[in-house]
Amino acid sequence: MAEEQTPDKTVITVKGLSVSYDRKRVLTNIFLDIGAGHLYGVVGPNGAGKSTLFKAMLGLIDTNAGSVSINGKPVENSRKEVVYVPQKSEVDWTFPATVLDIVLMGRYPHKKILQRMDQHDKDLAHAALKELGIESLRDRQIGELSGGQQQRVFLARALCQEASIFFLDEPFVGVDITTEEKIIAVLKRLAAEGKTLLVVHHDLSTVPEYFDQVIFINQRLVTYGDTETVFTQENIAKTYSGQLPILHRTGMLDE
């Protein structure tokens, strides 16, 4: 089981994080204190470094400067506590595995090398499939599913890990509205239980409805905090610098 979190306890500390690709600076001097029991929307224009921020925080890419700690420990010592759901475009959907196989992969951080799955692992997997409404798909090949079904599978895998911190990169892209509503309901439940969730998100019109915290980023940290406080026209303009953000619903931020 992941470490139990007290609401508002700082669980992730980012200090002076900077990242470059091919000598081009992508992220510069990012400082963040991420609290438990919150659902964070990470927003910014294309090329802002949102996905890079996740990968750097997770230790998946090299950084130029800075540090990241999770519950006061280095990232590499926190693998059981953290789960990452990448963009769909980064997944090999031709990989020959069933839905149940994929979901059970969430148990790998809890297993020794070559240790078999036990009944507890299988029970967790079936419970996750049931919550996401895809239990009937458990024997299907992952590549046969629709985009929305695939995204539900990867969230079920994340649930199966029993982590306390979730990173989800664009989980709503390419899914139907029913799947989107199902996913956000699960994420809100996890936050209410004291889990920490960070979600890269593009549709600004749903930010106030989905997230209680928002992080504005455009290669640098613009601002972050309570959605009611920082989700303003001024901060949107600062972040998007003239680029038109995605607004799928009308009436947002009416003045």
From TrEMBL:
The reply to whether Transport figures as a keyword in the UniProt entry is yes
Please provide an example of a Pfam family that matches this protein in its UniProt record.
Answer: ABC_tran
Q: Which UniProt keywords apply?
A: ATP-binding, Nucleotide-binding, Transport
Q: What domain of life is recorded for the organism?
A: Bacteria
Residue stretches in coiled coil: none
InterPro entries per the UniProt record, alphabetical: AAA+_ATPase, ABC_transporter-like_ATP-bd, ABC_transporter-like_CS, Metal_Ion_Import_ABC, P-loop_NTPase
SUPFAM superfamilies from the xrefs?
P-loop containing nucleoside triphosphate hydrolases
Where do the ABC transporter domain residues begin and end?
12-244
Gene3D superfamilies in the record: P-loop containing nucleotide triphosphate hydrolases
- Give a yes or no for keyword Transmembrane helix in this entry: no
Give the matching PROSITE patterns.
ABC_TRANSPORTER_1 (PS00211), ABC_TRANSPORTER_2 (PS50893)
What family classification does the UniProt entry report for this protein? Belongs to the ABC transporter superfamily.
What is the protein's given name? Manganese ABC transporter ATP-binding protein
Which species is this UniProt entry from?
Flavilitoribacter nigricans (strain ATCC 23147 / DSM 23189 / NBRC 102662 / NCIMB 1420 / SS-2) (Lewinella nigricans)
